[in-house]
Amino acid sequence: MKTPLITPEGLEKLKAELDHLWRVERPDTTQKVAWAASLGDRSENADYHYNKKRLREIDRRLLYLRKCIDDLKVVSYSPFQEGKVLFGAWVEIRNDRGDQKRFRIVGYNEIFDTKDYISIDSPMAVALMKKEVGDEAVVKTDAGEFVWHVTKIEYQK
């Protein structure tokens, strides 16, 4: 189950995608379907079939985005978060081998197309929740347990 949280920036990104799909891509694709249909025989009309399929994909995504946006809870920065790893935090961690990582803990809908964001539902985020600088987090995965040390916590304000 995905935790229905999102940052203000993530919500704006989803709203921008919804707006673009509704105002730009859907009308353009609808126009292409109408043009392809006007050519006559649709049974072997690749433009018609491709654009009808694309229109269904757009409509599916629009439906998902509308429902998703309505169900999400926006979590903005609050001063009480300082010093602890909570939703929206940029976290730097290090293990005993010297490996370092830096990422932001965000909602599931924000992790795509961004290599340094992880979901709040991931094993790493679960292990790091409420930790402070200097704390040790044990991350449990199918591959085993891994120990990481929190070295820095920041928030976008």
Automatic annotation (TrEMBL):
Residues 82-155 form the Transcription elongation factor GreA/GreB C-terminal domain. It comes from the Bacteria. GO terms for molecular function: DNA binding; RNA polymerase binding; translation elongation factor activity. GO terms for biological process: DNA-templated transcription elongation; regulation of DNA-templated transcription elongation. The keyword NAD does not apply. It holds the Pfam family GreA_GreB_N. Residues 5-74 form the Transcription elongation factor GreA/GreB N-terminal domain. Keywords: DNA-binding, Elongation factor, Protein biosynthesis, Transcription, Transcription regulation. The keyword S-adenosyl-L-methionine does not apply. NCBIfam families: greB (TIGR01461), PRK01885.1 (NF002506). Necessary for efficient RNA polymerase transcription elongation past template-encoded arresting sites. The arresting sites in DNA have the property of trapping a certain fraction of elongating RNA polymerases that pass through, resulting in locked ternary complexes. Cleavage of the nascent transcript by cleavage factors such as GreA or GreB allows the resumption of elongation from the new 3'terminus. GreB releases sequences of up to 9 nucleotides in length. Belongs to the GreA/GreB family. GreB subfamily. This is Transcription elongation factor GreB. It comes from Dawidia cretensis. The lineage of its organism: Bacteria, Pseudomonadati, Bacteroidota, Cytophagia, Cytophagales.
